[in-house]
Hints:
The protein is an alpha/beta fold. The chain has helices at 4-23, 41-46, 48-58, 74-87, 106-116, 132-149, 173-180, 191-196, 201-207, 239-250, 266-281; strands spanning 33-36, 62-65, 90-97, 120-125, 155-159, 186-190, 214-217, 254-257.
Amino acid sequence: xxxxxxxxxxxxxLAATASAALAARAYNQSIPxxxxxxxxxxxxxxxxxxxxxxxxxxxxxDVEFFSPYFEWTPDYARGVRHTLDEAGIRCxxxxxxxxxxxxxxxxxxxxxxxxLGCRYVVLAHPGEISTxxxxxxxxxxxxxxxxxxxxxxxxxxxxxxxxxxxxxxxKRPMEVLASDTDKSIMLQLDVGTCIEAGSDPVAWIKANPGxxxxxxxxxxxxxxxxxxxxxxxxxxxxxxxxFDAAESVGGVEFYLIEQEGSDYPELETAQRCLASFRKLHxx
Length: 283
């Protein structure tokens, strides 16, 4: 019969083995880490060039411009691209409202995204949708846009908020968007809003292999008064499991830190979040 000490020794060995396996986790260090520039929106509005340069100096490898970029002239966009190139940082995707996907505006979206060097034209928000049929129409809009984006070397994307993970008539709108859109359309996962809505981001990634090509690494805390104000890795998101799923089955190509606001100035917030990401993702 095994002694108590023998049993304890085995348990200690198994615990040590598990800890070693966790410590040995190897994440893909070639996946770039970027910043959704909404995180520094006030600084960006005051000084776009200086803000992009500051973000690049921190060590961010790419950025995502949001919808005001759509009002730029091609010449202004070329100036922004020059700034990006000089700073050694890329723009891999843009956030857009639904107007960018309308047939009469899609050529403009293609031109601006080509100038910036993007891969994805992402629908950031579809407007107020309250029915599953409404989301089916959004899916059809994305499919139609894809027919024009693909030949131009671009892909469409969809970015979720809370509503897409809240069931309507017993079904989550994100399930409709995933099933009714062309498989080339990226499902850009906003982690924080997914968690706030009560859904499991890891399960969602695993249910949509190869389509989670980008993630917004937005944090969320259920603690009263905190919500989205907590910095990366200070909330409820299970980041280690999320990274494992994104890199093993999700098909992630790039990560994007996003912060809606915190107790720190915008650029300091971005820098603190990047430092936390580097520490965690270094595994």
